[in-house]
Amino acid sequence: MHFDVSPGVVKVPVLGVELQRLFFLANPPVVTPYARFDVAGTENIPRTGPAILVGNHRSYFDIPAMIQMMRRTGRTGRILAKKELFDVPVVGALASALGGIPVDRAGGGQESFETAAVALAGGELVCLLPQGTIPRGAKFYDPVLKGRTGAARLAAATGAPVIPFGVWGSEKVWPRSSRLPRMLSLTDPPTVRVRVGPPVEVLGRSAAADTRRIMAAIVDCLPPRPARSGRPRRRRSGSPPPAAADAERHLSQRGTALRNGI
Asked: How many domains does the chain have?
């Protein structure tokens, strides 16, 4: 047991270094040549002390994007992920050794909530995706993000600041419909962008209202959509339906409106 890290964090014997830190060092962006990373705004993440990092969920490749975001802070952290990931042979054991926190959604997630609270009390970063799963169909393009209340409740219980971030482009590397990422795009790999915003004001009076503020702040980290310039006359195969394109045009404005109107 190591008393300078929260329970569940593994250190490498003799070296006394967190396994996650070695993993970060061994995973620079060049390890994934089929994707580029563009990360900005990490100065909004505290250099010391606890913080809750919250972002949107677009792809299974969001986790590597989050790792690149955290690498730039020089800090390690605990990432919450669905319990099913930890049930996968080898992958689950590695996720646990790296300090991942399994979330049992069927059981209400109380155990993961308590584990995350302990990590925050120890001054760690805790990273989670309040949407819980990648939205399906037209909901993928919904300009209003809906999330679970876990981040808001953690903030109210611990006093840790909530730092929003937006991820986009990860779905081009690993679409939900694919079993594996697209690893052959070596000559012109897609760019995965991460933008970190300023802390969200969490009042602690209503988890639902605070969650709406958090999700609106995440939307504010996302870019205006190209569809702003006008709806294409002809829908191409694989492009979002007209209603979804209209929704994307207002993504940024709706996020700001939600933030100001609550």
From this structure: 1
